[in-house]
Amino acid sequence: MNKSDLRKLIRNKRRRLPLAERRRAARQLLCQLHQSSRFLAARRVALYLANDGEIDPQFVIDDLQQRGKQVLLPVLHPLKSGQLSFVRLHKNTVMRRNRYGISEPDFRHGQRVNPRFISVICLPLVAFDEQGNRLGMGGGYYDRSLAFSHQSGQKPDLIGCAYEFQQVPQLPAEAWDIPLHAIATNGRFRQF
Ligand SMILES: Nc1nc2c(c(=O)[nH]1)N(C=O)[C@@H](CNc1ccc(C(=O)N[C@@H](CCC(=O)O)C(=O)O)cc1)CN2
Ligand SMILES: Nc1ncnc2c1ncn2[C@@H]1O[C@H](COP(=O)(O)OP(=O)(O)OP(=O)(O)O)[C@@H](O)[C@H]1O
After folding, report:
1. Which CATH number fits the domain that encloses residue 102?
2. Which neighbouring-strand residues pair with 88?
3. For this UniProt entry, which residues form the secretion signal (predicted)?
């Protein structure tokens, strides 16, 4: 199956999931992330706001904020097309909707943090395989914005977040793909 058909299939399945199952999976995601000592120790964590049926990290965001951690969200860069910035989420953060209808902190008002200085980045994904390859929505945003992690130096831990059913046997690995360090689902925490 090609990437575009695979995206359609899994995105449809994700959107059809009943609300009760979504909520249960969202709680299980928090439990699975708590398996990771690096996640528990992280001071700064980037997450996302669920869109298109994605597993919902809202309980994870609440938990981090209660534990006094810094939470960041991705924002489409208004000038550098295809790039994400990471902006801090506070109680008073001014939010707006981006071109895909996803709520994000306002780029101009927000406090941006260079992704090199983020401890853990939780990435949304459409499909993953057992090697930790990731298939996203197809915009290449995370691949472009995290391309620096191919080089040496300080880098964030990259944890993909998904439903267990989003695993596929094998994804074609592209040169620009950023390999994930771990995947947290409703059922498991896999480390690579
Ligand atoms: N929750 C969440 N936030 C995120 C991402 C994500 O995957 N999930 N992104 C991860 O990169 C970035 C946004 N990327 C996205 C890329 C495509 C579509 C999307 O729905 N595309 C439509 C076509 C829309 C159009 O071109 O007008 C589609 O495929 O149906 C959404 C988000 C930043 N924020
Ligand atoms: N580092 C990069 N520099 C320039 N272009 C890139 C880079 N990474 C990815 N791209 C481009 O982005 C496009 C989309 O890539 P791909 O289909 O792998 O996205 P994705 O990982 O599914 O999406 P996303 O990261 O937004 O969730 C590709 O056509 C690719 O050429």
Report:
1. 3.40.50.10420
2. 72
3. none
